[in-house]
Structure formats: C-alpha cells, structure tokens
Amino acid sequence: MKLFRKSDEKHKDKFDAKNDISAWASALAHEIKNPLNTMKINLQLLEEEWQQNNVSNEKLQKRFNVLNKEILRLEQILNDFLRYARLPKPNFEKYDISILLNELLDFTEPEAQQLNINISKNIESNLPETYLDSQQIKQALLNILINAYQSMPSGGDLIIKAYKTDSKIRIDVIDSGEGIPSERIDRLFDLFYSTKENGTGLGLSIAKRIIDLHNGEIIVQSQEGKGSTFSVVLPIYLSDPTK
C-alpha cells in the first residue's frame, strides 16, 4: 500500500507538471499573439505603400515606431514569463520580517512621494524571526506594493500592517485606491491577466508563486471606490523547513 501511494503521488506530480506547462504555453501563446498581429499588419501596410511608391519619411517613421514598440513589448512579456517560470526554490534563512518591511518601504518611498501617496505603517514589535527567502519575499511584497501604487494614480493613502496571528505572520497592504470589481478578484493571479494598458499581468502571478513556495497564502479583499487589502500570510518556521 505504501509503495502504491508513492507511485500514485509521483504520477500526480507528473500530471500536474504537464498541466502547468500546457497552461503556461497556452497563456504565453495567447499573450504574444496581439503584438505579433500588430507587427504583421504594419509590415503588410509598409509593403503595400512601398509597392505603390507611396512611402514618405513620416509614414516610415510611424511604422518603425509601432514595430519597435511591439518588439519591446514582446521582450517584456518573454522576460517576465521567464522570471516566473524559472523562479528557483526558496533559499530559507532566518530573517526579521520587521527589518525586511522597513528595507522595502525605504526602497519604495521616493516613488510613493512622487505619486503623492502617504504611507503609514503599524508593525508589531517583537515579531518572531522566521526562516524565509528574504529576496523572494521582498519581490512578492514589492509587486503587491506596485499594484497598490498603480491603483492610486491621483495619490492616496497606504497602510502597512504586520502582526503575529497564531503560528503565522500576517502582512496587510491596505490602499485607498480604485478598488477591484468582485468578478475580477478571482482572476488577479492568473498568468498575463492585467487591467492596465502597459502591464504584462505577471507581477501578482509572481507574487503568488513565491508565497505558495513558502507555504503561505495571499488573501484579497476589495470594494470598488474604497480600496483594497492584500494580505500575505506566512508560516513561522523556527528552522529551515527544507531540512
């Protein structure tokens, strides 16, 4: 019976891995289709104008600008996708989450000031140290902060809370932004899902993948016109969970 369970688990892992690869490939193909179509149309127009001897410097510059913009977009999509797909397993080390949060807020403060966003923090004193990958957690929280900033284009208020609850640490990122329609919340962490014109939709996907690798979770609460709360819940590890 024990051997059967191991075999069954291995089969399930392979099945899940194949499903992941299939889903990633499908999402990537769908995402790069639009810029490729735009490039194709502009090349066709350029060819027609060239054959009709109707190509001015202004038209050439216009076509080249569009092509260059779409090439840069493709590069961004592929780079973000590779960052997501190649995310390594966490390198767990003992770290003080209070220090991590203060370092992150110091890093993002200039951007917040530029956007006229007021930041206040309420970090519980004496939070226990825990084993985590500090660089990955910083990246996940940074992506969530960037998302919060982008939801407040005219400025606003951002509150960061961190506190211990049971055997976990909870970090709340609370913004006074536009809020998220309820029908979109379930899709926030989908690959390439974005409501922003220039976004690739991978920032929150990467954040969720990192938190999943730490056996944590992200909880989203939002109300249109009143803002959103993204809560990151991490287990407190007193030793390296991989050993």
What does this structure look like?
This protein has 243 residues and is α+β, with helices and mostly antiparallel strands. It contains six helices and seven strands. It has helices at residues 2-51, 57-85, 97-114, 134-150, 182-185, 203-213, and strands at 93-95, 117-123, 130-132, 156-165, 168-175, 217-223, 227-235. It has a five-stranded mixed β-sheet with strand order 2-4-5-7-6, with helices on one face. A hairpin with a 2-residue loop joins strand 4 and strand 5. Helix 3 runs parallel beside helix 4 (134-150). The chain starts with a helix and ends in an 8-residue tail after the last strand. Residues 1-19 have low confidence and may be disordered.
Draw up the topology in text.
Elements: H1 2-51, H2 57-85, E1 93-95, H3 97-114, E2 117-123, E3 130-132, H4 134-150, E4 156-165, E5 168-175, H5 182-185, H6 203-213, E6 217-223, E7 227-235
Parallel strand pairs: 2-4
Antiparallel strand pairs: 1-3, 4-5, 5-7, 6-7
Structural features:
243 residues, alpha+beta, Helix Hairpins, Heat Shock Protein 90, 2 domains, five-stranded mixed β-sheet, two-stranded antiparallel sheet, elongated, disordered N terminus
